[in-house]
Write a structure and sequence with these properties.
CATH architecture of the largest domain: Orthogonal Bundle
Structural class: alpha+beta
Number of helices: 16
Largest sheet: 6 strands, antiparallel
CATH superfamily of the largest domain: Transferase(Phosphotransferase) domain 1
Strand order of the largest sheet: 1-2-3-4-6-5
Number of strands: 15
């Protein structure tokens, strides 16, 4: 692309490359103004639906005119591809700024930058735009000391198509900043951006992400996001104040209701103009995810008070037990004396000796001591090879991830089904029939529904059920609806219309599912490789 022209812009150099595409520095041939041009991956260009979505989103983003948001100047769609012409700012993405320029950013300077970030995001939220991918690499620190937010809505557009735009190893960067509701595949709002801001603030203050992206798997990170609070800031940078810890805790609360409800509320707490309520630790009562270990009773030397009546009952029970034991011992002793007495009196004859010799001859030959040791040694289970141990470990990991994946999908389906709305209106006619007008609407743009069955139950004046009928509907696409009438010759006073069954079709699979699928595929490849190696070794033997 270097040297080519997009509209009146001459592309001069490559600024950066990511999973979505490449960003180039270009200069307006007549005005001399520098811009950044983002060229989307070539495999998106031929998809008509992507082009339409991207066009609509570009129109929305062009309305975001804020000092702390990178401005979108133009959208270009031609035979060369899809391009965004954006404001060019010199400086560093926040993640590079922390790693290469500043290290952990002092509190006062962090507050200065963060006020600007909150201003830009609050402005976007008032326009009903949720970023969904806030992270340090999407925040730019300019040479003038200003903070600007990048890539509004782009990740959402591409994610809707489920086209795997990220390169290997790049996906985890986004995972680290996801909110619990994003991991579970639930609906997101401005508070999901606030959660990601809290993780970003953690990284600014400590100089590192709360999770180790080099050693932790995506599955492990998801588990921590859902179940565990972020590590303590002072564990990484002792000089951080308790007030900042409280702010990060509130921004990253698992419970949406305990989080900052807006960027403005976040900013007031950050600047000390409002009081911050402490976050109540989340008690995990959600059985849809990894089970909580039971609280087992611990041993104690404390002597508990036992009422006298209970002591007397226990004493009586013990006395009875002692009597039983004594009788059993006496009986056993008598039996031994009786047996020994008669054994001593029994005659021994030559015939008996001969019989004993014959019996001895029929006895099996005793195994020599060395053979016995060898036999015991052979009976011991063979120690597993390193490959077999690794295979067992991978199998256990695969089972855990698959279980977690099923639970996320189940939670996601429940969330999608909330978007299937049913309205009904009672109508009567001259024939005395009970007529209902029913409308079933799909209010979501990220789901379709099939195998829809609507139930209608009729009741009399005493709320006694008279009859239930079922109505099967055709598939519902996103944002579509179906209306139909039902006529019944029945003397009913009331009715209830309900969804008996429906199967959601997810049009925007949660990123957590995509990541877990990728991890499962990697595990399966490793397992297959190990199994082939074990098979080869077995054949050699």
């Amino acid at each position: 692309m270097i040297g080519e022209r997009i509209l009146n812009y001459q592309i001069e150099s490559l600024l950066g490359e990511g999973g979505v595409g490449k960003v180039y520095l270009a200069v307006h041939t007549q005005l001399g103004r520098k811009v950044a041009i983002k060229a989307l991956n070539a495999n998106l260009v031929g998809n008509q639906e992507v082009r339409e979505r991207f066009r609509q989103e570009a129109a929305t983003l062009s309305a975001l005119q804020n000092l702390n948001i990178i401005t979108l100047y133009d959208y270009v769609e031609n035979e060369q591809g899809l391009f965004l012409v954006m404001e060019y700012a010199q400086g560093n993405p926040l993640d590079d700024y922390v790693k290469k320029v500043s290290g952990p950013i002092p509190e006062n300077k962090s507050i200065y930058f963060f006020n600007q970030i909150l201003d830009g995001l609050q402005y976007a939220h008032t326009k009903n735009i949720v970023h969904r991918d806030i992270k340090p690499s999407n925040i730019f620190i300019t040479q003038d000391g200003n903070a600007k937010i990048l890539d509004f809505g782009i990740a959402k557009i591409l994610k809707n198509e489920g086209m795997g735009m990220t390169k290997d190893g790049a996906r985890l960067g986004t995972v680290l900043y996801m909110s619990p509701e994003q991991v579970k595949g639930q609906s997101v709002d401005a508070r999901s951006d606030i959660y990601a801001l809290g993780v970003t603030l953690f990284e600014m203050l400590t100089g590192r992400c709360p999770y180790n992206e080099h050693t932790a798997t995506e599955y492990e990170v998801y588990q921590k996001i859902v179940h565990e609070p972020l590590p303590r800031l002072k564990d990484f940078y002792p000089a951080i104040s308790d007030r900042m810890q409280t702010i990060v805790d509130k921004a990253t609360a698992k419970d949406l209701a305990q989080r900052f409800q807006s960027c403005e509320e976040f900013r007031q707490a950050l600047n000390g103009t409002s009081n911050i309520s402490a976050v109540t630790p989340l008690i995990n009562t959600n059985t849809n995810f990894a089970p909580v270990e039971p609280n087992l009773p611990t041993q104690t030397t404390e002597r508990k008070h036992i009422p006298r009546q209970v002591q007397e009952r226990r004493s009586g029970s013990n006395t009875f037990l002692y009597v039983i034991i004594a009788l059993m011992l006496t009986t056993s002793l008598a039996f031994l004396v009786y047996t020994n007495f008669f054994n001593d009196k029994m005659p021994t004859t030559t015939e008996n000796n001969d019989n004993n010799q014959k019996q001895d001859q029929r006895k099996p030959v005793e195994v020599p001591e060395e053979d016995d040791k060898k036999k015991k040694k052979d009976d011991k289970p063979k120690e597993k090879s390193e490959e077999e141990k690794m295979l067992d470990t991978l199998k256990a990991k695969q089972e855990k991830i698959e279980e977690f994946r099923k639970l996320i999908l189940k939670d996601r389906d429940a969330e999608l089904l909330k978007g299937l709305r049913i309205d009904d209106q009672f109508e009567s006619n001259d024939l005395g029939e009970y007529v209902l007008r029913v409308t079933v609407a799909n209010t979501r743009n990220d789901a379709a529904f099939k195998e829809i069955v609507i139930g209608i139950t009729y009741f009399n004046a005493e709320d006694k059920e008279l009859r239930t009928i079922e109505k099967e509907l055709k598939d519902l696409k996103d944002k579509a609806k179906i209306s139909f009438s039902v006529k019944e010759s029945i003397s009913a006073e009331k009715h209830k219309v309900f969804r008996k069954s429906a199967k959601p079709i997810d049009l925007e699979t949660p990123e957590s599912i995509d990541s877990l699928n990728t991890e499962l595929n990697k595990i399966k490849e490793k397992m297959q490789d190990l199994q082939e190696r074990l098979k080869e070794e077995k054949e050699k033997k």
